[in-house]
């Protein structure tokens, strides 16, 4: 998965990072979670309780420290915020969604 879906390459790709595709996914997910925490005006303590994270990890999340979180962990956090998460597979005339986690 790359930013080419949207017609532009990401900075991760431009710098030739070998894990650029994963970094794009992580970046989008962590930004979504951080923005949702801010939108809800949650304190770090309340966000931690909701997401099952300690304060240092909430801080890392809000500061978008990609290295601290896996794609799977970020998808779980999106689910804990009440959103459905699925994986979309497409190509060769086939398209389907695989539910990853139902909303909490």
From TrEMBL:
SUPFAM superfamilies: lambda repressor-like DNA-binding domains. Gene3D superfamilies: lambda repressor-like DNA-binding domains. Pfam families: HTH_37 (PF13744). Residues 33-88 form the HTH cro/C1-type domain. One of its GO terms (molecular function) is DNA binding. This is Transcriptional regulator, XRE family. It comes from Methylobacterium nodulans (strain LMG 21967 / CNCM I-2342 / ORS 2060).
């Amino acid at each position: 998965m790359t930013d080419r879906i949207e017609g532009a390459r990401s900075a991760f790709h431009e710098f030739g990072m070998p894990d650029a595709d994963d970094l794009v996914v992580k970046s989008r997910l962590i930004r979504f979670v951080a923005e949702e925490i801010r939108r809800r005006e949650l304190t770090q303590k309340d966000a931690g309780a909701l997401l099952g994270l300690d304060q240092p990890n909430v801080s890392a999340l809000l500061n978008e420290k990609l290295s601290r979180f896996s794609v799977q962990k970020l998808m779980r956090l999106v689910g804990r915020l009440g959103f459905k998460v699925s994986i979309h597979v497409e190509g060769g005339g086939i398209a389907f969604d695989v539910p990853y986690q139902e909303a909490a």
